[in-house]
Amino acid sequence: MTEVPPIRIDDLTARYGANRVLNALSLEVPTGSITALLGGNGAGKSTTLAVLLGFLRAESGKISVCGIDPAVDPDGARRRIAYLPENVALYEHLTASENAEYLLALSGDPQDHGAIADAFAAVGLQERAWDERLGGFSKGMRQKVAIAVALLRRVPVLLLDEPTSGLDPRATADFNMLLSSARARGTAVLMVTHDLLSAADVADRIGFLESGRIVEEVTATGPDRFDIRALHARFSAAPEVPA
Ligand SMILES: Nc1ncnc2c1ncn2[C@@H]1O[C@H](COP(=O)(O)OP(=O)(O)OP(=O)(O)O)[C@@H](O)[C@H]1O
Q1: Is the ipTM of this complex over 0.90?
Q2: What is the model's pLDDT at position 151?
Q3: Does the first or last residue of the chain, that is N or C, have fewer Cβ atoms within 10 Å of its Cβ?
Q4: Spacing, Cα 45 to ligand 1 middle (Å)
Q5: Which of 179, 54, 185 is nearest to 193 (CA)?
Q6: Ligand 1 atom closest to residue 209's alpha carbon, by position in its atom list
């Protein structure tokens, strides 16, 4: 029996009003792999995530999350997805542990203190921060709380919108290591990003999105994985689409 890919998009078209944003988009993210979507402003990267999450309906084409059409069963699709938006929404007046406890209970995956502590340790959140309120946390620390929650849910699909924007190189490298461990556990990761270096560091495949369709895909090969210079030339050549 052939396995249903965690993310599959076939010939997808979607629009906001009169503005056709996704245009014959096709994309597959297999189990245990990381795909990065790059593209200029307004190319349709975040919209691709919105369709997978069932926030926007496709006009035509097919989309499935572990075999579920998010337009037909958005809750079913979302139960299989951990989603990190660019600006992670956490509760400022709760501590890191309380945030994790609350968010996991909300998503129907309650976890005990021990599991949360293990996840915080795994993502490198310093122990003294676990019981601190989020008010004074840096963006990197917030990302760690959010990714710990996402990983604790052990869902098959992880969607990330600009996960490394605003992170320093050390925090970006730490974050990429976490993604690698999620991949090793079988998670299908789709990240949209402008961070070519981070994508080249961690992704198995990079797709370039232009005007709502993937115009080129490159796959990591050999010890050097990607030809960064060629990617940079390619990426800088992508036209910007007015928002
Ligand atoms: N909620 C919305 N309502 C109407 N139009 C929208 C909405 N969200 C996005 N758009 C439009 O859809 C197009 C694609 O936007 P999208 O956010 O998917 O691009 P992006 O590739 O993620 O860009 P960026 O790199 O700037 O984040 C843009 O023209 C944008 O103005």
Answers
A1: yes
A2: 84
A3: N
A4: 8
A5: 179
A6: 21
